Amino acid sequence: EAVDIVKFLDDCIDELRYDLEDQGVAVDWDYAAREAVMVSVDLEKLKRTVVNIIDNALKYMDNEQKKLAVSLQVESEWITIAFKDNGIGIPEEALPHIFERFYRAEPSRNVSTGGSGLGLAIARQIIEGHGGTIWAESKPGAGTSVWIKLKRMTSEGAHKRDDSNPDY
Ligand code: ATP
Ligand code: MG
């Protein structure tokens, strides 16, 4: 279905606002241009992906000044959403494995909230199922960033127009 990704992110963050506030997380979600940016996705599945990513940010922050920054980058054919936390981070050797099923990196195995190691595997399955990509970068002790890249919807008339082509 056609989803406006700007409104979608507004809604996701609104829905999670109480959880985030409860845990003392300062959220930075700012997207200056407010016009709709359409993406063809399964809304519930994309929401599941965002919840899984933000759930991790919440679970793996143990610092005083918890921060989560959500940002959206819009290009002509793609959109990229970034989720950046300043939590415990992921060891370099663990990073290539975090999207595997049941994989949990060393320090977070001890996090009392627990987990089964499925959240990011599900996220990857959903994003790749939509023809997108998902990846992460992290620095132990400094924080983790997760990106989702999805193809923008090109509606009729929004296709690249070639005026030299009389058939257009
Ligand atoms: P589940 O999501 O099934 O409850 P989980 O959170 O352990 O369990 P994933 O969400 O798939 O599983 O994440 C895999 C592992 O990647 C985590 O166990 C953790 O080690 C690491 N990880 C993921 N996101 C973060 C993050 N934001 N900060 C630190 N570590 C993270
Ligand atoms: Mg998780």
Automatic annotation (TrEMBL):
It is found in: Cell membrane. It comes from the Bacteria. Residues 1-154 form the Histidine kinase domain. This is histidine kinase. It comes from Paenibacillus spongiae.
